[in-house]
Amino acid sequence: MDPFAQGLWDSSSAAPPAAAAAELPGMQVDWKETGEVHVIKADLPGVRREEVKVELESGGRVLQISGERRREVQETGDTWRQVERSSGRFMRRLSLPENAKVEGVKASMEHGVLTVVVPKAEVNQPRIESAQMTG
Which three-class secondary structure string do you get for 36-53? Predict the structure, then answer.
């Protein structure tokens, strides 16, 4: 299963109907696994920390990043020549692997990059006992 396949984006101010939503343009996500943690980084340029929610769903198996990028207020006399940056509500869901330890999840945001660190649970490796051979 592709954990990145569940991205949703709604450019209207209403709650997104799941079937009509598309992925947030520009919300690129990197996911790195080390020996101890999963590190997920999401680019959220122009979004303040207060506008982002990081939640665990489905018993901690799904990490959900959501929020809203607000459109700039148009002042009287302003004329927009071009508008390409997306605004509106966004949501991205990532399925966490079995070795994710959801009790210690930490999130931080700096310079428009959200970083979520998910510790890995220790996995008990099966022990192979050596057998003594008799002749």
Answer: CEEEEEEECCCCCHHHEE
Amino acid making up residue 5: A
Angle at 44 between CA 62 and CA 20, to 5 degrees: 60
Per residue in 70-128, pLDDT tens? 877 778 888 888 888 778 888 999 999 999 998 889 999 999 999 999 999 876 655 56
Tokens of residue 42, six digits: 């999401």
The ranges assigned to domains in the chain are: 8-71+86-119
Q: CATH number of the domain at 8-71+86-119, out of 3.40.190.10, 3.30.420.40, 2.60.40.790, 3.40.50.2000? A: 2.60.40.790
- Residue 62's CB is within 10 A of a number of other CB atoms, namely 16
